Amino acid sequence: MLESSCMRLLRAGDSSGFCFNHKCFEALFCFRHMLADVKPNSVTFIAALAACAATGSLRYGKEIHAHVLRRGLASEGYVPNALLDLYVKCGHTGYAWAQFSAHGEKDVVSWNIMLAGFVAHGHGDIALSFFNEMLETGEHPDEVTFVALLCGCSRAGMVSQGWELFHRMTEEYSIVPNLKHYACMVDLLSRVGRLTQAYDFINRMPITPDAAVWGALLNGCRIHRHTELGELAAKFVLELEPNDAGYHVLLSDLYADAGKWAEVARVRKTMREKGLEQDYGCSWVEVKGDIHAFLTGDESHPQIKEINAVLHSIYERMKASGFDPIESYSLEDKEVSKDDVLCGHSERLAVAFGLINTTPGTSIFVTKNQYTCQSCHGILSMISKIVRREIIVRDTKEFHHFRDGSCSCGGSG
Question: Is the residue at 205 inside a domain?
Fold first, then answer.
């Protein structure tokens, strides 16, 4: 099953320009064939587990875990941490916790993997408690530890805790903040609406801010609709990363929320001229050990008629309840969803396929190569309420756990 899954994904990638995790699927395909002739060592198992973690291939990851146990390599080198990473990134923190607890010797990497996992799943408060437990064991945190913690504070809106950690990092542990730490702090301040404070913080930085730092401010301006400061942030961002589609979309959304359609059109025109609207979205879901990939605008899946029928039925139920799933506006004589540029909405197809092919009541886990837009976020929230299922989407930013109409991230994409 893995072989057919990988080949289907590779074919999809070749036909669409899609390359995210392309090599990971290819690696798993090669590993499967390798098992017939060669006994893998711990390094090979680590690489295979990393590929499973990157692609969300939990079932095959468990098979590799079984191979590791049979070979007696579960405690060798980085293997324990590779297993931790697998279960965290596949959305099974329970498995990860069991693996973490079972492994006697833990290093700072083990703690960091668990911390990052709690943060990615929206459990900033648990991450802080876990950090205190880490300190009680005598483990010394490193710069990666604080990136995870500051990110957790940012997503949970814990401003005072974030400031405390930022100061402790330098004063107690002599860790010099790098650009990732500064970006987390700007994101923390921007998300809660302290945009002027975030801008002043950037101006006081002892190192030159990069695109991620300015991008965090731009995102905050988008959230809180501060067009003037957002334009300033975008100016710096696009000077540093002129060909990044994501930052162009943030700017486009900033203008769209302000009703500045001429500016939206200008940004979109720039994107078309630079070829930035050609990045295809892809989502994949594992069902009964087989991985099914769904590309933006792709109608080639054998069950596509059933998938579209399910989505149409769900959309009709949403409209009947007063929620319009299709948010669009007219631009240049063309109906365009403002989120279509980067999202692609491929996760909707993956979720619908999961609904058709899994037992009612079971969770659906989808991995996506791009971020989840506000439109899809709202639709998936509604789907989780309508079908009474948990839907987990791992995009490029974080995990989204949709349950009964709400999401673990607390936001709308």
Answer: no
Residue 392 to residue 402: CA distance in whole angstroms: 6
What is the residue range of 49's domain? 1-105
Let me know if residue 251 belongs to a domain.
Answer: no
CA 67, CA 59: separation in Å to the nearest integer? 13
Bridge partners (DSSP) of residue 400 are: 393
- Residue 120 maps to a domain: no
Domain boundary among 105, 124, 146: 105
Instruction: For residue range 357-387, list pLDDT tens digits in order.
Output: 999 988 999 988 877 877 788 889 999 999 9
146, 113 contact by CB (below 8 A): no
Helix, strand, coil distribution of the chain in percent, nearest 5:
60, 10, 30
The tens digit of pLDDT for each residue in 3-15 reads 444 434 333 333 2
Q: Token match 């690696």: residue?
A: 27
Residue 142 CB neighbours (<10 A): 15
- From the list 10, 4, 72, 54, the residue with the least C-alpha distance to 32 is 4
* Contact call for residues 345 and 263 (beta carbons, < 8 A): no
pTM of the model: 0.77
Is 253 a member of any domain?
A: no
- State the chain's maximal CA–CA distance in angstroms: 64
Number of domains in the chain: 2
